[in-house]
Write a structure and sequence with these properties.
Blueprint (H helix, E strand, L loop, with lengths): L2 H11 L7 H21 L4 H20 L3 H18 L6 H19 L3 H17 L12
């Protein structure tokens, strides 16, 4: 189904099925802007990296909820890349293209899910962040 196709379904079935267009803009626009800023300026501050990582984390949690092995594999590798970026690793155009592509796919994947599943995934991610060792988490307030 195309990206715009699920929007039409959302309008027909209502908010309980999926997220609305304004909700989609609210949760996805900021991470896309942060990634664009990161890639354009090379300024990898943790607030921006954490914003982008949040989308990948929620997509991965949804993949686990759905027992979607393909998506689990697809989104798993991106956390290591983002952690390396947050720790100052320099990388090139290949990695930048990968980040753009995977963020777009994660956006589509998240927005195609039921709202209740998205909320569950967000709670799962929040819990995991609270329980994770500090060196494995990108803290937005860290310099």
């Amino acid at each position: 189904m195309s990206f715009s196709g699920h929007r039409k379904i959302n309008r027909l079935l209502g908010a309980d099925y999926g997220i609305s267009e304004p909700e989609e803009v609210h949760i996805m626009l900021i991470p896309h802007l942060h990634l664009s800023h990161l890639l354009a300026t090379g300024e990898w501050n943790n607030l921006h990296v954490a914003s982008v990582a949040g989308v990948f984390n929620v997509a991965l949690a949804l993949a686990y909820i759905n027992k979607d092995r393909r998506s689990i594999n697809f989104y798993s590798g991106i956390q290591n890349l983002l952690l390396a970026i947050a720790n100052g690793q320099v990388f090139g155009d290949t990695e930048k293209r990968r980040l753009r592509t995977v963020l777009s796919e994660a956006d589509k994947y998240v927005c195609a899910q039921r709202k209740t599943d998205i909320l569950t995934a967000i709670r799962m991610v929040e819990y995991q962040i609270q329980q994770a060792p500090p060196e494995t988490v990108i803290r937005p307030d860290a310099a």
